[in-house]
User: Fold these one by one.
Assistant:
Number 1:
Amino acid sequence: MIKPEGRLRAASETPGLIREEAIATAASWTGVARTAPGAMSAWHHHGDWETVAYVVTGAVRLESGALGQDVVVGEPGDVIHIPAHVVHRESNPADVEQRLIVMRTGAGPIVTNVEAPSTRPADSHAGGSNRQEHDA
């Protein structure tokens, strides 16, 4: 069990976002991501890592896709999926700190900070699920 005081500040940081690592193995990462009210992270992606985030407090506005035009807003109790390699940024439009429980599976560097996305195919976006494709 990892208590809050046992979490480590993640080695890879993105401006505007605080990551606290609870458990990390060669193929998984679990921790907490925190964003202050009104704050926005820099653009980044998680390489080969699939990410699932559960919104505990605050809200998360996740922008991805060409020019960041794909937008998902999550509130407490919502679960968000961010596929591997999807360039995105998140902000907290709420008036309280955003706390996300984050679980990742994959390999390689966990975060890569990048420039804002330009126009490119919008076939990769974050937030939803491909459940309909898999259930068919």
Note: The chain has one domain: 4-115.
Number 2:
Amino acid sequence: MAVLDPAALKNHSRLFALLDDVGRQRLVGAAVEETVPPKEVVLFEGDLGDSFFLVVDGELSVRIGGKDEKSEVARLGPASFFGEIAALLGEKRSATVVCLQRSRMVKFDGRKVQTILKDYPKVREALVKLGLKRSEENLQQMVEEDFPGVPVTTEGSALSGSVVSASCAPAKPPVSAEGIVPKKK
């Protein structure tokens, strides 16, 4: 069991504020705390997801298409989630996550969390929306890298079914999901 206090869990992320006290207690029961050293890979792109993480402290790098620094698309810090979509939907990981510094995180068992979230559909929906937003931001960045000099904008959001498209309009800066800082170029 994680050392994390169930009452304090809602202070780590707004998603946990959607749970009641019993739900937070159950969630903490499905978690373990881990400390990971710098340069260690926490999860690999393409692996089947069976757990997800909440960063308590530290900094991690999210990389798509490889585990080298050139593949970085985002950095994660305290209150960031990662791995939740693969874990909750039984899909393959869409990115590799590497610790940049000693990081403390809470690891949640996906199957146990799925059982808990059956009683909290709003929390499950919020996690899925967070994952969709993150996917949209990653797609936008990949298009920008493949078509340098062509501004890229998003019309609407992934949550309403829009797509990323190249346009002549100025590019909008990406809006970060909770705790995620887009990679600076």
Note: The CA atoms of residues 152 and 165 lie 6 Å apart.
